[in-house]
Amino acid sequence: MNKKLPFILVAAVIAAILVAIFLFRQNPQVQKPQPEAKAKVSVQAAPLAIQETNSLDASNLTSLREIARNPSLSSTGATASYEMRLAIADRLNTNEAFLRWATNAVSTAVLHIASSKNFHIHGADLTNANALRINVKATLSGLRGEASYDPNTNSGGPVQFIIEGGTNPIVTMVQDPYGMATYQLNPKQAGSDAYPREVARMDWSGASAPLDKSEIEAAARNAYLAMTGSPMPDGLQVNIDVPPVTDGTVHDPSIQITGNQSATVATVNNQRYPFADFEFINSGTQARVFSGEMFQSAAGTGAFVELFTTQSRSGVQNSVIDLGEKFLSPTGDWENEVLSTLGSTPQDQVLKRVWSIPNR
After folding, report:
1. Closest by alpha carbon to 132, among 118, 111, 154, 155?
2. Domain coordinates of the chain in residue numbers?
3. What is the pLDDT of residues 15-36, one digit of tens each?
4. In angstroms, rounded to a whole number, what is the distance separating the alpha carbons of residues 188 and 184?
5. How far apart (Å, rounded) are the C-alpha atoms in residues 259 and 209?
């Protein structure tokens, strides 16, 4: 018998086994299904429903938008939402393209409303880009830009602007704190932390009659349009108040107070109407859509010393994601990087940072 025969038989068996394994792997009918790769988010109470897309990046972006709306669903979802938005904000705050764009967006928005011919902001007449002090950063809500125009450090106060939002930010606040009734009616506040300067009371001589309410409303609607880029919603309840104020510098000679000849008593001769407050209210929800205050800078002419509006809830949730998509996409798979780190920060640390609570 040939001694090589057993080795030949063994080799033939091994070859047959290898061929069988190869055919088994290539046969689609017997191939085992492979689990679909999904982003894992350990802090979610339930798996995210991710729609099928043609791109992994698009799928991750959908996941981020789903997480962003979770603050209203559970405490776990809230933590994930806050942590995710903080992670994106951190990346934006070191992104030079975002910081340059944000600075320019704030400057453009301020100059747009300060130069409007349809309304007047007190103290902002000569606002220009070179005179603005601007700070920008990304937060949970997207862009937050703060700008101030402060030309009269000895005789007036700064006009302050806040701009917020995503790729299309809006002006959410304008304020001349030293020109508002809070300060002007109580000059003793000068030198406090809130009002460190001593600014003299503004001239009330032209405010002997109230501002026309229809003109106040028209100016407010124009201001809202300039700040948000959209007209005032229909059907809002409009409240306007123009209260009288006793001018302490005017003494009615027809009124004499025994024992105090210099006492000021409110009469028709010393009543002034320097301030007007207004608000636009959603009648259904009672939410304040827009509010502010005017000062009667000359007879029949009003200037805004405060304007305030808010962003929509959905806009706040997605603003920082919109900015991430605009400025971080060229740097790589940032969406997957953010998703992969969710749950790595303890919940209490996330909330401490969100609310700026000291670590103690």
Report:
1. 111
2. 96-185+194-313
3. 554 444 444 444 444 444 444 4
4. 9
5. 31
